[in-house]
Amino acid sequence: MSQEVRNLEPKALWNKFADLNAVPRPSKKEERVIAFMKDFGAKLGLETIEDEVGNVIIKKPATPGMENRKTIVMQSHLDMVHQKNADTDFDFDTQGIEMYVDGDWVRAKGTTLGADNGLGVATIMAILESTDIKHPAIEALFTIDEETGMTGAMGLKGGLLDGEILLNLDTEEDDEIDIGCAGGIDVTAERDYNEEEAPENSVGYTITVKGLNGGHSGMDIDKGLGNANKIMNRLLFDSFENFGLQVAEINGGSLRNAIPRESFAKVIISEIFDEAFVFDMQEVINDIKTEYKTTEPNLEIKIEKSGDTPAKVMELGVQEGLIRAIYAAHNGVYRMSADMADLVETSNNIARVIVKDGKIHIGCLTRSSVESSKFDLANALRSAFELFGCEVNFSGSYPGWTPNVNSPILEVLKEIYEKQNNEKPNVVACHAGLECGILGTNYPDMDMISFGPTIKGAHSPDERASIKSAQKYWKFVLEILENIPMKN
């Protein structure tokens, strides 16, 4: 199937993407892709550096006639979000992504595609390898661990780069030019609980929530998508209130930056409520499906009797606190920007809920383009979880990227885009966490811009990249390189 992708135009881009997608590259486990990039740079005979945190920098001199242009940094991240459908047999640690062409889209078989940010990485690789593309001096910066902490960008020291302009190739709408982004912080709540013997005459059930779209917890947070953890909690709340349901286990969501698509719970009900429980739950399920019929048409909620009734359950006091805290905890858009139309300013994603073996873990990712608002929402979540006895930690905080509407490179991109497409681009800030804000802390004078081809469904197995858009984007990149401003 990769050969089908390799035959797409522009071949230089898609071939490098196929090469990259053959290398396993989960966040926090980038050793193989780091070695792959270093080998790539060395084979081209270009200066190749691995910094102390694992970022790879490859430097290529200007092509003849372009030596008097400003040096540019072309930047993308090496890691990718690993998500798969429950029924997909795939090992991200050992297998390359299995791609196929579906009309105008390149997709993966039951997994994330890695177009985020693999198409950006492939773009830079194709330019580094080229012998006929005009460009100024390039410093190619391939960062690690963007998806789970941005530790690559945070660890990049000042003085390694000389470029005056940074082109970040990590956005997902080809008619947009990004000039700002949100910062983020992880909010993690944990506590222990006592397990109790399940009462006699109990009936075991499994509750399954699946079939949700999922998606990027920043870019898709305003689309009204279902969060499997919140939906599961709603079911548990109703059943506990009306029938005394007791929880044995919960396993919901996966990655902090992915809207949860699935949640599974093992519970018990007294057998005297057995029929009434099933009847009432079906009414609740119908209500939820009706509410989400437009945004989540494939939502499945199943209530099924267990083969074995759980022997242990949560102590009731802690269970009640957990269910009420998750109900109270904010999920989704918290505040819209007052300065940029249609921009989400602050949001939260309740990404992970695990209850098992006497331990509770709740993981959230809070985003905001305003630092004070980010911590306001984080403290609201902290309060909800501390009220039922959790220890709450903040970690992985990173800054947003403040928009510069007077950016010189922005004017270059706007002019080229309008000339190529006979329309003006949308100049925006995004609610995702781009690395520009972090990189700017050590390179404050660098003029930064972000753009990319159209990618849909990032961070979910529905991730797909538009072929037509990649062609449009490639043409855009080539003309940008030819029109980098002269050195001062």
UniProtKB/TrEMBL annotation:
Hydrolase recorded as keyword: yes
Alphabetized Pfam families for the sequence: M20_dimer, Peptidase_M20
Any Gene Ontology CC annotation: cytosol
GO molecular function: metal ion binding; metallodipeptidase activity
Co-factor requirement: Zn(2+); Co(2+)
Keywords: Cobalt, Dipeptidase, Hydrolase, Metal-binding, Metalloprotease, Protease, Zinc
Cleaved signal peptide residues: none
Annotated catalysed reactions: Hydrolysis of dipeptides, preferentially hydrophobic dipeptides including prolyl amino acids
EC number from the UniProt entry: 3.4.13.18
GO biological process: one example: proteolysis
Record-stated family: Belongs to the peptidase M20C family.
The protein's name in its UniProt record: Cytosol non-specific dipeptidase
Organism: Flavobacterium rakeshii
